[in-house]
TrEMBL record:
<keyword id="KW-0119">Carbohydrate metabolism</keyword>
<dbReference type="GO" id="GO:0004721">
    <property type="term" value="F:phosphoprotein phosphatase activity"/>
</dbReference>
<dbReference type="GO" id="GO:0008157">
    <property type="term" value="F:protein phosphatase 1 binding"/>
</dbReference>
<dbReference type="Pfam" id="PF03370">
    <property type="entry name" value="CBM_21"/>
</dbReference>
<keyword id="KW-0597">Phosphoprotein</keyword>
<dbReference type="GO" id="GO:0000164">
    <property type="term" value="C:protein phosphatase type 1 complex"/>
</dbReference>
<protein>
    <submittedName>
        <fullName>Protein phosphatase 1 regulatory subunit 3D</fullName>
    </submittedName>
</protein>
<dbReference type="InterPro" id="IPR050782">
    <property type="entry name" value="PP1_regulatory_subunit_3"/>
</dbReference>
<dbReference type="GO" id="GO:2001069">
    <property type="term" value="F:glycogen binding"/>
</dbReference>
<feature type="domain" description="CBM21">
    <location>
        <begin position="62"/>
        <end position="174"/>
    </location>
</feature>
<dbReference type="InterPro" id="IPR005036">
    <property type="entry name" value="CBM21_dom"/>
</dbReference>
<dbReference type="GO" id="GO:0005979">
    <property type="term" value="P:regulation of glycogen biosynthetic process"/>
</dbReference>
<dbReference type="InterPro" id="IPR038175">
    <property type="entry name" value="CBM21_dom_sf"/>
</dbReference>
Length: 194
């Protein structure tokens, strides 16, 4: 389905149906629908969309980082989950950064550790900032219209704990439909687009 080389050869006997993974069948179904459509290829897909402005694009990003010691920088959504970056003030060498998240309004929660990515100078020029990256896996069955993912960043250093929870509102992403259009002449390269 992805154009890769075979890793195993399987010989099927007459009357024996091959087992086809669901993700391959769904792609074949999409291709079939597109084949019968007119002019432009148009479909919608569901994805998680932030209900907040990316913090790094806000004018008060530096002051929030100074005040909270930790601040989400940016988050992006893919079909596998959410990935993002967090900045923390370099108070001490030993530190722990994590992201706590929920799919059901905090009735249950999950937590993932963020990984150190790089160190950069603070915009004020008075110290260093460490950048951490994180990935939150989002199972496809949770991607239904209007489903919500909420999260907050936690920073532990020198026996203290600091949070960035979007000023008490949590960072929230909502599943919405996103229309995609593709010119008809691109249909041969459709599998590469997926």
């Amino acid at each position: 389905a992805l154009g890769l080389e075979l890793t195993e050869v399987k010989v099927f006997q007459t009357g024996e149906d091959p087992s086809i993974p669901l993700h391959v069948l769904s792609r074949l179904s999409i291709n079939s629908d597109l084949w019968h459509s007119s002019s432009d290829l148009e479909f919608t897909m569901q994805c998680l969309v932030p209900d907040f402005q990316q913090p790094a694009d806000c004018m008060d990003f530096s002051s929030r980082l100074q005040e909270q010691q930790v601040c989400l920088e940016r988050v992006t959504s893919s079909d596998l989950g959410l990935s993002g970056t967090i900045q923390v003030r370099n108070v001490a060498f030993e530190k722990q950064v994590s992201v706590r998240y929920t799919f059901n309004q905090w009735r249950s929660l999950h937590e993932v550790c963020a990984r150190w990515h790089s160190s950069i100078p603070e915009k004020s020029g008075q110290g260093q900032v460490d950048v951490f990256t994180f990935f939150l896996p989002v199972p496809p069955f949770l991607l239904q219209l209007c489903s919500v993912v909420q999260f907050a960043a936690r920073y532990r250093v020198n026996g203290w704990e600091y949070w960035d929870n979007n000023r008490g509102k949590n960072y929230t992403l909502t599943c919405r439909t996103h229309p995609l259009k593709m010119p008809r002449e691109c249909e041969e390269s459709w599998i590469h687009f997926i």
